[in-house]
Design a protein that fits this description.
With about 240 residues, the protein is an alpha/beta fold. Helix content is about 35%, strand content about 15%.
Length: about 240
Amino acid sequence: MFFKFVKNYDMSKTFLFIGASSDIANSALLALKSENHKVIGISRNASEHEFDNFYTIEKYDTEHLPDIEETIDGLVYFPGSIVLKSFSQLKKEDYINDLEINTLGAVMSIQKYLPNLKKSLTPSIVLISSVATHIGLPFHCSISLAKAGLEGFAKALSAELAPKVRVNIVSPSLTNTKLASKLLNTPEKIEQAQKRNPLQKVGSTEDIANAICFLLSEKSQWITGQNIQVDGGMAAIK
């Protein structure tokens, strides 16, 4: 006997991108728009790409986040920071800044739009962490603190929102974006970055966007509370 599997995830959905001007967000936008989905963007910076609606704000907190009335099928929080300093150089303000951008902004955004997500039949939240939370990297104390907090929050939230809302994390290694440009601005730096992971390549924005789009889709409908490491094997194997 043969069974015919019918896809039920082709209908158009509405996704909300926080930090929507990032390079990874742009790649995810193009992928979702190619499948006729609607994408709403919120960012502190303007975007060159065509969102269905786009809001520019000053900060990622409840006072500045815009009201959105429509149902949201998936939320992705993209904002991140790369401030690499030795532990002795880091000040309290550095830790606070990284926590506000990477962790508290995600918390505030989810609190704001959770009612919109709960209106969806298949809501999904995707957060972006870092390979630095899985392996010890020098000069990463501040960002590791912030991203580890984000991962702990996501794990607890996934338990609290189950079975209605799925919550997952994507953890990239160094990716070729404007944010990481100072770390990849010479052939020597690129070669060094490639040698840090078993697949010996620098990640592309499409690599990360593919994982994000998978976690937003119903193809991942039995996945929650997980951390997908898109890092060329850096955190898992030598």
